[in-house]
Design brief:
CATH architecture of the largest domain in chain A: 3-Layer(aba) Sandwich
Radius of gyration of chain B: 22 Å
Shape of chain B: globular
Order of helices and strands of chain B: HHHHHHHHHHHH
Largest interface: A-B, 32 and 29 residues
Number of strands of chain B: 0
Oligomer: heterodimer
Distance between the termini of chain A: 36 Å
Strand order of the largest sheet of chain A: 5-6-7-3-8-9
Structural class of chain B: mainly alpha
Number of domains of chain A: 2
CATH class of the largest domain in chain A: Alpha Beta
Helix content of chain A: 25-40%
Mean pLDDT of chain B: 88
CATH superfamily of the largest domain in chain A: P-loop containing nucleotide triphosphate hydrolases
Largest sheet of chain A: 6 strands, mixed
Number of domains of chain B: 1
Largest sheet of chain B: none
Number of helices of chain A: 11
Mean pLDDT of chain A: 88
Distance between the termini of chain B: 27 Å
Low-confidence stretches of chain A: none
Low-confidence stretches of chain B: none
């Protein structure tokens, strides 16, 4: 059984009469990558700040690796790395000097820090520019330096708040690879992002924030299933039949959308490929392709906020 | 609720980093160049005046700091005027600059308390000013030895060190004020302007405001001569709300051993005293002890204000 690394219970933050976070429960297991999604002002960043102990919750409790960020802040901060949106570094210092400063603050010995910094810069592909002033770095390089800091500190948990915001596609891809490397190293990651393709690529589960609450917590397939769109999308190519007519008889099929000649897109709540194949063959058609696709997060996300949240 | 670990963990790291930043910053170089040039000119003027007018004086080196030759003010007066500018220039963006650079949340996500950030920034600024003051004082002493041909006496050195300590406390007040503004105001430019406005009021206008306030608070009764003394004392009390006044009184007592009081002196108080005889250093220190305590108290008060605001601040950048 995997251990729970992050646990928030009834977490609430109120600013005067405004409720920023309205009592959320969140549990993240070791090694998991959880995406925090939702529109601006939904409470994602406030939740992150409360998890880090940078903001005091009005109500509720947080435990990171079993420790309270407010009562044991140093122990929690030693284990948790934070990469904010548009991370700031000291421009007059080089990338290496910035990391060395962080290492001193984290209490890492100079010798150990030297090795860790070199390894982290290498992994973040910044070794060649490590001695250049950060003022000359591009935004993507700064974000990678932020990830290098997490690597250097060897944190158990990484909280990334909009790390890819404002990055060009290539920088986004490079950062994504680094985040995946962190995950492969066993780091538990909480990733807040508006870039749904990024979240789909790296996250095991997602938490959908709306009006300060988590409306959904689970996998993308579970989300697609919950909103009735079907977690499984099957691309069917066949000749000699009309799948729109015969396919609906298969159990679990939610909808069939006809594409170009001989193509259909089937949405189902489970993998119905065997049933579909049988139906096509039984109807005398010839099956050319039967391709299972994952549910697309952007579609599920949009439907969730359009149908579930707005209707509520 | 007791917090784990020391609140000062990381303070030295931040203080040394801040000091290094100041030492290499263009604004520090420019302002120190201004201070250095004016200080050298003031001391050079003082040396000229001493060699022209003073035959023998046991506190020759202290005179280097207090003698003025028109149109230049004395070194001590110059420092009293320019040091607040140096302090404000160093830390006017200490806290809000971290927000502007978006480094604050990353800094506070490190395993340190907020206490360390504020203390580190304050101590970093104070360290730089201490180094600059010591260098300036040694430079002035060197110039004195070179041009006057005499070494400083032990009393010169003791009083000089006490003067340096008081100057550091004076600088500390302005550092704490600038840090308080940089915590309260999010824009670095606005916080610099706010600190400079306070400096302008206290350094330039306060001497005009104090007599006006005193005349309202303690009007003179033509039939009661003691009301003149009361009004003067009220004016002095109001003036002492300005760190400039407190520093001026400390400087006057420490650098002029013949001075016996910072307030009005009656004949019965100087009965038996030899006119112009120097006061022992300890006695001079005792006279200005309240002023020194006042400077330290103002520094602590302003720093506490910054501390409370910073501890309660929402960190989002």
């Amino acid at each position: 059984m995997s251990t729970t690394v992050i646990e928030a219970k009834g977490l609430m933050k109120r600013y005067g009469s405004t409720v920023a976070v309205a009592g959320i429960d969140l549990s993240v297991r070791a090694g998991e990558v959880v995406g925090l999604l939702g529109p601006n002002g939904a409470g994602k960043t406030t939740t992150i700040l409360m998890l880090l102990g940078l903001t005091e919750p009005t109500e509720g409790s947080v435990r990171i690796l079993g420790k309270d960020p407010l009562r044991q802040p140093l122990e929690v901060k030693r284990e948790v790395g934070y990469l904010p949106d548009a991370v700031g570094f000291y421009d007059s210092m080089s990338g290496r000097e910035n990391l060395a400063y962080t290492a001193r603050l984290a209490g890492i010995s100079a010798e150990l820090a030297r090795e860790s910094i070199a390894a982290a810069l290498d992994k973040a592909r910044l070794a060649e520019v490590a001695d250049r002033h950060v003022g000359t770095y591009s935004r993507g390089m700064r974000q990678r330096l932020g990830v290098a800091e997490l690597l250097m500190r060897k944190c158990s948990v990484a909280i990334l708040d909009e790390p890819t915001s404002g990055l060009d596609p290539q920088s986004t891809q490079e950062l994504l690879e680094l985040i995946q490397a962190l995950s492969r190293d066993g780091m538990t990651i909480l990733l807040s992002s508006h870039m749904l393709n990024v979240v789909q690529t790296v996250c095991d589960r997602i938490a959908l924030f709306s009006n300060g609450k988590i409306g959904f917590l689970g996998t993308i397939e579970e989300l697609a299933d919950k909103i009735g769109g079907g977690a499984f999308i099957i691309d069917v190519e066949a000749d000699g039949i009309d799948l729109s007519e015969i396919g609906t008889s298969a159990k679990g099929v939610k909808s069939i959308v006809a594409g170009r000649q001989g193509h259909w897109l089937v949405e189902a709540e489970r993998d119905v490929r065997p049933e579909l194949a049988r139906l096509v063959v039984d109807a005398g058609g010839s099956l050319k392709n039967l391709d299972l696709r994952r549910a697309r997060l952007d579609q599920a996300y949009n439907r969730y906020f359009r149908e579930v949240v707005h209707e509520a | 609720m007791r917090r784990e670990g020391s609140p000062f963990k990381g303070t030295a790291t931040i203080a040394f980093k801040e000091a290094a930043d100041h030492m290499t910053s263009a604004r520090m170089h420019l302002i120190m160049l201004l201070v250095l040039l004016t200080a050298i000119a003031a001391v050079y003027g003082a040396i000229g005046r001493i060699t022209e007018t003073t035959a023998e004086d046991p506190f020759l080196f202290l005179k280097l700091l207090t003698e003025a030759r028109e149109p230049l003010p004395s070194f001590a007066a110059l420092l009293g005027f320019l040091l607040p500018l140096v302090a404000i220039a160093l830390v006017f963006d200490a806290v809000n600059g971290e927000y502007a650079r978006r480094t604050m949340s990353r800094l506070l996500a490190q395993p340190i308390y907020r206490d360390a950030v504020l203390f580190g920034k304050f101590l970093g600024g104070l360290l730089v000013i201490a180094i600059a003051l010591l260098t300036l004082w040694l430079l002035m002493t060197g110039l004195g030895i070179l041009f006057l041909g005499l070494p400083p006496s032990a009393a010169d050195i003791v009083r000089g060190v006490a003067y340096l300590a008081a100057t550091l406390a004076y600088a500390g007040v302005w550092l704490a004020l600038a840090i308080a503004f940089s915590t309260l105001i999010r824009s670095p430019a606005t916080s610099a302007l706010a600190a400079l406005s306070v400096w302008l009021v206290l350094a330039v206008f306060w001497d005009m405001i104090a007599p006006l306030l005193a005349s309202v608070l303690a009007p003179i009764d033509p039939l009661d001569p003691m009301t003149v003394v009361t009004q003067f004392e009220t004016q002095q009390a109001v003036s002492r709300f300005s760190p400039q006044t407190l520093y001026g009184e400390i400087t006057g007592m420490l650098l002029n051993p013949a001075a016996r009081s910072v307030g009005p002196l009656f004949f019965d108080q100087v009965q038996g005293a030899i006119a112009g005889a120097p006061l022992p250093t300890l006695q001079s220190l005792l006279v200005v002890w309240p002023q020194l305590a006042g400077l330290v108290a103002a520094m602590i008060l302003l720093f506490t204000l910054a501390y409370v605001v910073f501890q309660r601040q929402e960190v989002r950048a």
